[in-house]
Amino acid sequence: MSDTDATPKPDFRKGLPFRDLPDGTPVAGRVDDDDVIVVRQGDELFAIGAHCTHYHGPLADGLVVGDTIRCPWHHACFSLRSGEALRAPALDAVTCWRVERAGDTVFVREKIGDPPRRRPAVSPASVLIVGGGAAGLAAADMLRREGYGGSLKMISADDSAPYDRPNLSKDFLAGSAPPDWIPLRSPDYYRDQRIDLVLGSRVASLEPQARQVELENGTVHAFDALLIATGADPVRIPVEGATDAQLHYLRSFADSQALVARAAAAKRVVVVGASFIGLEVAASLRKRGVAVDVVAPEAQPLERVLGVVLGKVVRRLHEDQGVVFHLGQTVKHADGRTVTLSGGTKLDADFLVLGVGVRPSLALAERAGLAVERGIVVNEYLETSAPGIFAAGDVARWPDPHTGQKIRVEHWVVAERQGQVAARNMLGRRERFDAVPFFWSQHYDAVINYVGHAETWDAVEVEGDPDALDCAVRYKQAGRVLAVATIGRDVVSLQSEAAMESSSAG
Ligand SMILES: Cc1cc2nc3c(=O)[nH]c(=O)nc-3n(C[C@H](O)[C@H](O)[C@H](O)COP(=O)(O)OP(=O)(O)OC[C@H]3O[C@@H](n4cnc5c(N)ncnc54)[C@H](O)[C@@H]3O)c2cc1C
Ligand code: FES
Question: With contact defined as beta carbons under 8 Å apart, do 452 and 436 qualify?
Answer without folding.
Answer: yes
